[in-house]
Every structure is written in C-alpha cells, then in structure tokens.
Design goal:
Blueprint: H1 5-21, H2 32-41, H3 47-59, H4 65-70, H5 73-79, H6 86-104, H7 108-112, H8 116-124, H9 131-141, H10 151-159, H11 172-182, H12 191-209, H13 220-229
Helix pairs in contact: 1-11, 1-12, 1-13, 2-3, 2-9, 5-6, 8-9, 10-12
The structure holds a DNA duplex (13 and 12 nucleotides).
DNA sequence: CGCCAGGCCGTGT
DNA sequence: ACACGGCATGGC
C-alpha cells in the first residue's frame, strides 16, 4: 500500500529539518515525572514560563512523584503559578498522581508497561489531558512509539502546503495518522526515536519561524520544499 | 502596550 | 462534528 503524498512530504520535512538542526535530545527534562509535569504546564504556555515553575517545584522538593503526592493542592498551585492556568493545572497534576497510585502502585515504570491503546484511553480520561498531552506523556515519559503533533505542525503544514487538501484546521488524529504513515516504512523499533525527533524538530522550527503571526523568512523548509516539491510558500 | 505561548474544556450551533 | 470563549501568567 502506497503512502499518500502528504505523508511523504512530512517525511521529507523531517529529513530536511534533521539536516538543518541536528539531534534535538528531547524532552528537555531529567526524569519521566518531570516530563509529565512539563507536558501539563506547557499547555498554551511559553516554555520559559514552564521553566520557572519547574524551578519552583525543584526548590520545594516537589519535582518527583513522592513530592507531588506530599504537597497540598494550594502549595502546588502557588508553585506553578508562573506558567498560568494553575486553577486547572494543579488539580490535574494531582489527578495524574491519583491515577498512578490507584492503578500502578505509584510507579511510572508500571504505568509504562501497560498496553499503549488502553493507557492512552486512561490518560485521556484524566482532567486536563487532551490528545497532545496524552501522546507527549506516552512518548517522552513512557517511551511508547506514538506520534505527537501540535499547532506548530498544523501551521507549518498549512503554510508550506504539505497537505491535500491544504486544511488549516486538520483534526489532531488526522495529523498523527499522517505522521505515522510518514514513518511507516521504517523499522518498528525505530519509530519511537523518529516520532521523538520529528516533534522536537517541529517545535524547533515552529518557535523560530512559524509563529501565529507569519514570520517565515529564513525558514529552512522554505527553499528546500519549494525546489523539491515545486510548491508555493504560504 | 498588545500579542502570544509546545492545550483543554464546556457550551452552543 | 466544528466554532468559540474562558482559563492566567510572563516574555518579548
């Protein structure tokens, strides 16, 4: 079965960004629980602000499962204040710990051992966890081979006309399906690393060149994609 | 100063 | 199934 053209374009996008930016070494965190925390905190929030909250948590000894379990909701809310939406994010993080304790003995390793589809459903059932947060946790904290996509990829794909039709509002699941197809020819054992790198590269180029207000000058994708695919820019 | 950031959720069509 | 507003802060 032959991959659709959009998937091939996403694959080319990955290759060209990999050549331009090199390995991204994502997720920027030291431990799996730190990945989980960052995934919640970065929702519609600048990563710089997330770093402040992470630093607060670290100082308070709360940058761990046991630490998060121990502190009060009020305390947690105060510590993550810099990254905003704390009235939602604080209870959401507590709910994650509650799930971890109730079903996985408080162990992220045991959680990681659960089958991907069931685990994804359990995560999506949590408050404050939508598809992107669930997939980020699955991939970057738990090592499951699932693609992570976001508004950056949607925007990049639209501006470079990678999709057919060139939808500006392609659903999340459609975008992840295309990403899966983009790497379908690669060995299964390499998918986690490829999905890891693809999303990291997407964010890198997105931050630098593909904000909400178009600023696509010097985008490493512009020249290459235009010449290789004969596509219009924007 | 105004716009924006690595979404999610409830509500209304 | 989508569209839209609210959620909150800090950086640039």
């Amino acid at each position: 079965m032959k991959p659709a053209a959009p998937a091939q374009r996403l694959r080319r996008m990955h290759d060209q960004l990999a050549a331009a930016y090199g390995p991204q070494h994502w997720w920027p965190a030291k431990t799996p629980i730190e990945v989980v925390i960052g995934a919640y905190l970065t929702q519609n929030t600048a990563w710089k602000s997330v770093e402040r909250s992470i630093a607060n948590l670290h100082r308070a000894g709360a940058l761990s499962v046991a630490g998060l379990r121990a502190i009060s909701l009020d305390e947690l809310r105060r510590l993550i204040q810099p990254s905003g939406f704390y009235t939602r994010k604080a209870p959401a993080l507590k709910a994650f710990i509650a799930l971890l304790d109730a079903e996985f003995s408080g162990s992220l390793r045991r959680m990681a051992a659960a089958p991907t589809p069931q685990l994804r459903q359990r995560l999506l059932a949590l408050p404050g966890v939508g598809p992107e947060t669930a997939d980020a946790i699955l991939l970057y904290a738990l090592g499951h081979p699932v693609p992570v996509t976001d508004e950056y990829l949607r925007r990049i794909a639209h501006r470079h006309a990678l999709l057919t039709p060139n939808s500006k509002t392609i659903p999340y699941e459609s975008l992840t399906d295309l990403t899966r197809q983009a790497f379908a020819a690669d060995p299964i054992s390499t998918h986690a690393q490829l999905f890891n790198e693809f999303h990291a590269l997407t964010v890198a180029v997105g931050k630098a060149h593909c904000g909400r207000t178009a600023r696509c000058e010097n985008c490493p994708l512009a020249h290459d994609l235009k010449t290789a695919l004969h596509l219009p820019i924007h």
